[in-house]
Amino acid sequence: MLDADFFRRWMTAMAASVDREAERLTALDSAIGDADHGSNMQRGFVNVATALEQEAPGTPGVVLMLAAKQLISKVGGASGPLYGTLLRRTGKALGDAPEVSEEQLAQALREGVEAVRTLGGAAPGDKTMVDALLPAVDALGESFAAARTAAEEGAVATTPLQARKGRASYLGERSIGHQDPGATSSALLIAALAEAHGE
Ligand code: ADP
Ligand code: MG
Q1: What is the whole-number distance in angstroms between the Cα of residue 117 and the centre of ligand 2?
Q2: Domain of 145?
Q3: Is the pTM of this model over 0.70?
Q4: pLDDT digits (tens, 9 = 90+) for 124-138
């Protein structure tokens, strides 16, 4: 079973990861966006880590909803509300249980990804974070490590795609040949999940 401490470890592992990878995320966003994705994610997750330390929420659902609140209020870009929605909906789906099963997490995360799709209107193949998150959710039934691999492969597979949503879509065909920054940070989020699980 996965308790509040597991979810806290997930969020702090993600904060450390975006800190390490901020330059790479920004470089990807400078190719097909406005060069702020690394700093957006860094600012967002620094605030998530601080809020979790200060408030020490006691259930998985509250951990994720508190994280979501920080991302929505502290990140100006498209990614703040989208990641905020992902975590808020996932947290809401987990309810107020003190511990949740891996199956419950997989189902909740699926609802979270659906909420991202509803908010942003992105379909698979539109070269967005959805292209990493959706395969990850599908693979999570198998294992956390499988989800990490699926997310990484999904992010890499955005390279030959033309962006149809977000800032990168303004570039049209010129968005082809670059890996999507948001799909890349989503792969980090799933890798942090596997790391929190010891995989
Ligand atoms: P902004 O585009 O406002 O500068 P960021 O640079 O932080 O925000 O995030 C860009 C990422 O957000 C993109 O690489 C993409 O993965 C994701 N994104 C943008 N718009 C959408 C959308 N409508 N649906 C899903 N993801 C999106
Ligand atoms: Mg940007």
Answers
A1: 18
A2: 2-196
A3: yes
A4: 999 999 999 999 999
